[in-house]
Amino acid sequence: MAKVTSRLPVRSLLALAIAASVQAAETGTPIAGDAGAALSSAPTDAGLRAELQGRWAEAAAIYRRMLAARPDQPAIWERLSDIYATRLSSPSDALDALRQAVRHAPSDARLQHKLSQAAAVAGQPAAAMEAIERAVQLDPDNLEYLRARATLAAWSGNHAVALESLVRVLAVTPEDAEARLNAARLAALAAQPDAAAGHYRRYLAQRPEDREALLDYMAFEAGRGNADAVRALDRVHRQRFGASKEYWLRLAELFEEAHDVRASLAALDEAARMAPDDHALWFRLAQGYSAEERVEPAWAAIEHALARAPDNLDYLRLRAGIATWRGDYPAAIQTHDRILALVPGDPSSLLGKARVSYWSGQLRVAERLYDEYLAAQPDVAVAWLERATVQAEQGDSARAMDMLEAYRERFGDSEAYRRHKARVLAWAARPQAAFDVLATFDPLPSDDHELIYTRTVALHYARRPREALESLQALEALRPDAPEVESLGRFIRAPLRSHLAFGLSQSSGSDDVTTRQARLRVELAVSPETRLRAGAERQRVEADVGSGFERPDGGTALSYSRAWLGLGHRFSSRVATELLAGRSRFEGDSRATYLFGMDLDPGDGLSFRVSRQQDLFAASPRAVDLGIERRANAVAVNWAPDLRHTLVGRLGYDTFSDGNDRWELELSPRRAMVRDERLNLDIGLSGRWFGYLRDPGNGYYAPSHYQRYAVTATGYWKIDDDNGVSLSASVGPYKDDRMDGFRAGGDIAVAGYFGITRDFRLDVRLAKSHYGGGAAGGYRSRSFDINLTYRF
Question: What is the pTM of this model?
Answer without folding.
Answer: 0.69
